[in-house]
Every structure is written in structure tokens, then in C-alpha cells.
Amino acid sequence: MTIDVDETLKRISSKKGVKAVVILNNEGQAIRSTMDHDITKQYGQLISSLVQQTRTTVATLDDQNELTFMRVRTKKHEIMIAPDHEYLLIVVQNPAEVMQQ
């Protein structure tokens, strides 16, 4: 399984505009990351908190619904978040580079 995860990380990381890929466990701790340790830790804590708050919001608005994907766009980056029950995938990309394709 480790080989599959590593290959998937390489494939995602090689896409134009992708700056970083992080996989977190359900406690917000990094399992794999292409960023340095301190930035990974910061993303893990903040994104995990954001996902938990968003899950609560979605469930409060409609208890038959659940969060499946988030996209946060800023001036500099686009952060794509795919939460699962056990893991959290975060992809940070430069939207300007992606649009130039």
C-alpha cells in the first residue's frame, strides 16, 4: 500500500501548478507531506479544524448530508481538501499556473 500512496503523491505533485500535497490522519497529524515539517504541522492543525467546523455546519443544516470536498481559493493559492473518515488529503496549488495550461 505504501508504494501506491507514494506513486499517487508523485502523480499529484507532478501536475502543473501543484505546490504541495499533504495526507493527514483523522487527528490532523501528517502521514505524508511534500512540505517542510513546520508548514505541514500548521496546515494540519488549521485545515483539520476548518474541516471539523465545516462538517458540523453541513450536518446542522441537513443531517442527511455530509462534507465530501472543499475548495478554498485565495489570491495566492487554491487549497483543495478531500476529507475521508480516516484520512484528509490536502492539495495546495497556484491557480495562476493551472489557468495557463
Structural overview:
The chain is built from three helices and five strands; from the N terminus they run H-E-E-H-E-E-E-H. It has 101 residues and is α+β, with helices and mostly antiparallel strands. The protein has one domain: 2-Layer Sandwich (Beta-Lactamase), CATH 3.30.450. Strands 2-1-5-4-3 form a five-stranded antiparallel sheet, sandwiched between helices. Strand 3 and strand 4 form a beta hairpin. The N and C termini lie far apart (32 Å). 15% of the residues are buried.
Helix content: 40-55%
Biggest sheet: strands side by side, in what order? 2-1-5-4-3
How many β-strand stretches? 5
Classification by helices and strands: alpha+beta
Q: Judging by the overall fold, what is the CATH architecture? A: 2-Layer Sandwich
Q: What are the secondary-structure elements, in order, as H or E? A: HEEHEEEH
* Largest sheet, strands/sense/barrel: 5 strands, antiparallel
CATH class: Alpha Beta
What is the CATH superfamily classification? Answer: Dynein light chain 2a, cytoplasmic
The CATH topology name reads Beta-Lactamase
Would you tell me the overall average pLDDT?
A: 91
Head-to-tail CA distance between termini: 32 Å
Q: How many separate helices?
A: 3
Shape: globular
Catalogue the unreliable spans.
none
Strand content: 25-35%
- Round the Cα radius of gyration to an integer and report it: 14 Å
- Give the count of structural domains: 1
